[in-house]
Amino acid sequence: MAAAAGASCVGGIRFAGGRPIKPLFSHGPIPGYRMILCVILASFLMFADQRMSWMEDVRAHISTVVAPVQWIVSLPARGLSLASLVLSDQTRLVNENRQLRERLLTLSQRVQRMASLSEENTRLRELLKATPRQEIPWITAGLLTLDNDPFLQQMIIDRGQQSGVYSGQPVVDSAGLAGQIISVSRYSSRVLLITDASHSVPVQINRNGLRFIARGAGQPNRLTLDNVPNNTDVREGDLLVTSGLTGRFPEGYPVARVSHIVRNAGTPFASVEVQPIAQLDRSRNFLLLFTHDSLKPTRHRLSQEAVDAALQVARPVRQEARQ
User: Taking every annotated instance into account, which residue ranges of this chain make up the domain Rod shape-determining protein MreC beta-barrel core (predicted)?
Assistant: First the structure.
C-alpha cells in the first residue's frame, strides 16, 4: 500500500519517488531496427528472385493461395456487368442482337470463302513441297484483374496449370495478339501484354513481308519498331502480323498497325510508332494458343468441340442466307 501510495502516473508514465519506473517488458524492437530488418529481407527476396530457380515455385504457390481473393475481388465488376445487362433497354438489346447476327452472317461468308482459299493454299504448298500448316489448339480465358502498377502492362486471367497453361504461351483476343504468359499458378496465370516496355515480338509487314521487332513502349496503346532504316518501304496504315521466326508466336496473327512515321535526315533510322490491334483496354475474354509440340489430347478435343459449337451456331444463319 505504501509503495502504491508513493507511485503516481502522469501521461501514461509511472513515477516513484520522482523517478520514472522502467517497464519490465519491452514492447518490440526499436523502429530503426525494424526498417533495417525489412530492407535486408527485401534485398534477399530480390536476390533470390533473380538467382534462385526455386522462387518460381514459391511464387506459384503464393499465387494459388491468392487466387480465391482475386476471384472475389473481380465479383463486383462481374456483378455490375450482369446488372447493366439485366437493366438494359429492350430496344438496345434488339439492336445489338441484330448487329451481332449481321456480323455473324458476314463472318460466315468469310469462312466459306476462307475454305476455298485454304484448299488453294494447300495445293500450292504441295506443289512447292512446303511443310503443311497445322491447326493450333486453344482454350478460352477470362480476365480477373489488371496490374495496378502504372509502369507495368500486365493482367491476371482465370486459367492455370489445371488447364494446361504454360509459361511463354501466346494470348490473343478477338482482334489480335495480346501478350504471353509469364507465370502460372494452379488456377490463374499472369500475362505480359505486348505494350509492356520489356516485351518484344518479331513482326512483318503484311503488304510486303519486311520483318522488324515491335517493342512495347510502356503505354496502353503504343508500340515502336526498332531499327527501321529511313529508306524502308513502310507506310502509315500498314498492318503488322507475327512473323513466327522465334517459334513462340505462330505466324500470321495481327499485332499492330503503323500510326506515325518520322524520317530524320540526320540519323540512319526512322522513328516508327504503331498501335496495337488487340483491344487491350476493353477485352475481357481471350484465347490461349497451344503452340508447343507436346500437346495433350484433351486440348485437341477441347478445340474441336469449340469448333463444332461455332459451326452449329453459324449453320442456321448460312441456311437463311442461301434462302
Answer: 147-288
Residue 179's closest CA among 289, 24, 315? 289
Are 164 and 271 contained in the same domain?
A: yes
Per the structure, the complete domain to which residue 150 belongs is given by 138-295
Question: How does DSSP assign 149-201, residue by residue?
Answer: -TT--EEEES--GGGT--TT-EEE-SSSEEEEEEEE-SS-EEEEETTSTT-EE
Using DSSP, state whether 292 is helix, strand or coil: coil
**The C-alpha cell that represents 55 in the structure block:** 522462387
> What is the predicted pLDDT for the residue at 203?
96
Distance CA 179, CA 181 (A): 7
Cα angle 250, 255, 258 (rounded to 5 degrees) comes to 140
Quick one: which H or E segment has residue 264?
none
At 313, which helix (H) or strand (E)?
helix 297-322
CA atoms of 190 and 146, how far apart (whole Å): 10
Q: Kindly report, residue by residue over 132-170, the tens digit of the pLDDT.
A: 677 789 999 999 888 877 788 999 999 999 999 999 999
**Same domain for 258 and 145:** yes
pLDDT at 5: 47
Give a yes or no: residue 51 inside a domain. Answer: no
